[in-house]
Specification:
single chain, 334 residues, alpha/beta, Rossmann fold, 2 domains, 4-stranded parallel β-sheet, 10 helices
Length: 334
Amino acid sequence: MKRILILHTGGTIAMQLHDSHRDSTRSTISFNLDFFNDQVPGLQEIADLESITLFLEDSSNMVPEMWVTLAEAIEEHYESFDGFVVLHGTDTMAYTASALSFAFENLSKPVVFTGSQVPLSNRRTDARRNLINSVELATLNLPEVCICFNDRVYRGNRATKISIGDFDAFASPNHPVLAEFGLKLTIRSRYRPGSGAFRCHARFDPRIQLLKLYPGMDFNRFLPTGTNSTRALIIEAFGSGNLPAGKNDALLPGLERYLSNDGMVIITSQAVYDEVDLGKYEGGRQAKKLGALSAGDMTTEACVTKIMYLLAHHDDKYTIRDLFRENFAGERTH
């Protein structure tokens, strides 16, 4: 029987556990599997389970230091287990899954993120199905950081949350699902097998800014000027990467100033489907000429975590630019 480690970080799935430890001063809580056995009978018939509670946080409280804690916990137990299930709140699950996909080199075991829209103790919860599917998935030869939710399996750095109140909370707009659960599990996409020794490189530099454009925006209020606090600026532009380029707009001159001060600019889109094309419209063409990078078909979550990862590992702007264009964890098509 495969050995699977469940790592609990918080979230809706075990909200009852949240409440029982809300005033705890301990940094690490030993999680009792009896809670799962009571709520999900037969779960331990799938695998030999052990569980660690790293922290109990609403996922809106997640920060890069917590990604590091989680990644290092997996590294510490990597040789002792066949797979890993991470219980996580849905709101920032795609960010954490993306971050770990960049941090892990030569991953050869499944790291499965799951959670729920309704607490496990609730009668009409989606948590039981998500948990059973995730534990089963973690026993398979699927060397991916993935998200398992509502009978679908998504590559972690391709997923994004699309619904607040529906059980079908996630989607993978620009990449096929990896697998689907029905009467049986069907693998629908090629996974990325690891080769060589597993390594964890979990470091992230959060000195970035994410800017979502809207009509009439006063860019002088929001654009960074230097790189002391903002080493990279990600812009959620319109459509295929279109930006205001009128003669009275301050965006492009502001980007030019920031780029001339050694900043980096990445253009993604507010539309979740398809690929950014900076050559399609005048605003994108001018931004590209100034040195802005296209995010291609990456999710915003992947853009944010990838640039944080690269900034933490490299100082040279041109090295970072070259690596950002590469597809090294399955996060982009081109």
